[in-house]
Amino acid sequence: MAAERTETVKVALGERGYDILIGHGLLARAGAEIAARLPGVRAAIVTDENVAPRHLPALIASLEAAGIAATPIVLPAGEKTKSFAFLQEAVDKILAARLERGDVVIAAGGGVIGDLAGFAAGIVRRGMNFVQVPTSLLAQVDSSVGGKTGINTAHGKNLVGVFQQPRLVLADTDVLDTLSEREFRAGYAEVAKYGLIDRPEFFAFLERNWREVFAGGPARVAAIAESCRAKAEVVARDEFETGDRALLNLGHTFGHALEAATGYDGSRLVHGEGVAIGMALAHRFSARMNLASPDDAARVEAHLVAVGLPWRVSDIPGELPDAERLLGYIAQDKKVSRGALTFILTRGIGRCFIARDVPASEVLSFLREHLGG
Amino acid sequence: MAAERTETVKVALGERGYDILIGHGLLARAGAEIAARLPGVRAAIVTDENVAPRHLPALIASLEAAGIAATPIVLPAGEKTKSFAFLQEAVDKILAARLERGDVVIAAGGGVIGDLAGFAAGIVRRGMNFVQVPTSLLAQVDSSVGGKTGINTAHGKNLVGVFQQPRLVLADTDVLDTLSEREFRAGYAEVAKYGLIDRPEFFAFLERNWREVFAGGPARVAAIAESCRAKAEVVARDEFETGDRALLNLGHTFGHALEAATGYDGSRLVHGEGVAIGMALAHRFSARMNLASPDDAARVEAHLVAVGLPWRVSDIPGELPDAERLLGYIAQDKKVSRGALTFILTRGIGRCFIARDVPASEVLSFLREHLGG
């Protein structure tokens, strides 16, 4: 039975708390699960041109079978959709469908769609119901948990958005079979991240079982559920990112800077790959600052190599800006507090911490060494 | 002493609670009041081309004297500024000033600027600090209290926005002397509204003392403070407008429809005037539905006439759409719940209530009668 294999992770946020269901066949059950929690709603489904042909008919059929009328809003695929222009388009189409505050916006797609649709749901009528149906591994383990939404601007990634918790997340692990190897690997970087932050046993599990996670089956469901649990615990402690939640940014400060440096060109670097390189750099930088053993950095690098993820700046194809320019991207990243550089560093595998007042000069000389490759 | 005349209204919203200061000379004290509550911040001041020449230099000087560096963002005046385009402009300029999450966005202006700047503060870095310096009577008694922000779209007014509570509101009653008579009167409609909702003694006070409220002095401070107190009490009971807060929409369902019908052309009808006509219509419609005495409707109309506010649809200059079209505007207004029309109706002066399931046919025939004038 498909239902037997469904795991439920509860995100404990009081009256904003919600369930994440993880398992097989959830797309087909979406209508019933939503109708049980939000009786009588109508829906807008925000999705993209890649996901729509694969999953939209099944999702609409599932909703209609549960009596939920749904208006599809299909946007272009890719990071560039996280813009003011497409936010406005999504908002206009939700309003044109005459949805009310009690109706639901469903995000069916990867992180881009989740971030954009969640932002739209958060601002139409000052907040509608929101449900996530994440279709990428990255979205299932990261962006669908925690309520952060947003768009990019010329000043940087994710600098504009709201906190908008979903009412339900349906992570159908079967839909991941339609992803390319590269997409799956990129999402896997975030899975490994949870082990590296504070779950050393989980990282060891992944070192042993990553092939089965990639292949599908119980190890995949277990790894996704453990990732959601890890993120949900941090989010429950710190919903609005005033403290501990910053740990989730492991690898993201370097990663975002590299994404910006490549002009968010997904053919060169996608988000998860940036995070992979960023995690390797964070561990290597921690070793350089005598916070952790170089052996731990080497272990992280070895695992990234094993699964086929990039781990060095030189793994990125094409030209990159110099170290000074990269530091500028880091300084404009949102994880800056009153001018001091804040990084997630580590004392070893699963022992990350928030390092404030990291000297820019140390980061600069570190970047100079690593831009050589 | 100016300080002696300052009234403080506390908005009780737990950790999102804040003070509204009402009185003379508050613009000159803005820097000190903000620095006392938000030490070490930098600021962006969002204002408009009308307000900037009158008040911006004094506000910047006050901030600088308190050690707060401020970047002014001056937008065109008028309702059309409440758009996606100007939201994006404000957001871009706040980011260009490199303000961080702990810095502050100050809205110095009327309701348009407050709604737009509050929306921007709510979405830049997923929520910055926000301070209101309302410069119109309408903004002092209405939009600066309660945390609603938003913009207009082709689908209607205020359909897109967030709830973003300010950290502080500084209502300098002296700045109201720079308003035109028409602007002051439009704001006064909202003052009278609080009496009509649930404060019959306050409405009687206004009937006796409205001339002194218009002239300035203690009656003005008292009326503004009572209005803020009235709104703050409703907001504290129902921050996210799931119940009682809808009472504040007295006059607004008809009013918004009339504003939409005039294409938001302020030369024909400004918001407060729409609310004035809307309140008169709500009382007259309540009488027609045998909920209240026609004498109460007549008393409301007489007060609006006395202060020089419009009270009939025929007081609006120019052509208006027919009753069916107006009903269409009402149906698209955000105070619609699952297709049923919701209005704020009354059982008498100060006895308003939320009427759900008002038959559209009754509204339509009522509008037909009143469009004749």
Automatic annotation (TrEMBL), chains A, B:
Biological or metabolic pathway of the protein: Metabolic intermediate biosynthesis; chorismate biosynthesis; chorismate from D-erythrose 4-phosphate and phosphoenolpyruvate: step 2/7
GO biological process, one term: chorismate biosynthetic process
Keyword entries, A-Z: Amino-acid biosynthesis, Aromatic amino acid biosynthesis, Cobalt, Cytoplasm, Lyase, Metal-binding, NAD, Nucleotide-binding, Zinc
Cofactor(s) recorded in Swiss-Prot or TrEMBL: NAD(+); Zn(2+); Co(2+)
EC number(s) stated in the UniProt entry for this protein: 4.2.3.4
Binding site for NAD(+): G111, V112, I113, G114, D115, T135, S136, K148, K157
Catalysis: reaction(s): 7-phospho-2-dehydro-3-deoxy-D-arabino-heptonate = 3-dehydroquinate + phosphate
Subcellular location: Cytoplasm
3-dehydroquinate synthase C-terminal domain residues: 187-336
Co-factor binding details: Binds 1 divalent metal cation per subunit. Can use either Co(2+) or Zn(2+).
Gene Ontology molecular function: any one: nucleotide binding
Superkingdom of this protein's organism: Bacteria
Domain 3-dehydroquinate synthase N-terminal: 73-185
UniProt keyword annotation of Phosphoprotein present: no
Binding site for Zn(2+): E190, H252, H271
GO cellular component: a single term: cytoplasm
Short name of any one Pfam family annotated for the protein: DHQ_synthase
Family: Belongs to the sugar phosphate cyclases superfamily. Dehydroquinate synthase family.
Its job: Catalyzes the conversion of 3-deoxy-D-arabino-heptulosonate 7-phosphate (DAHP) to dehydroquinate (DHQ).
The protein, known as: 3-dehydroquinate synthase
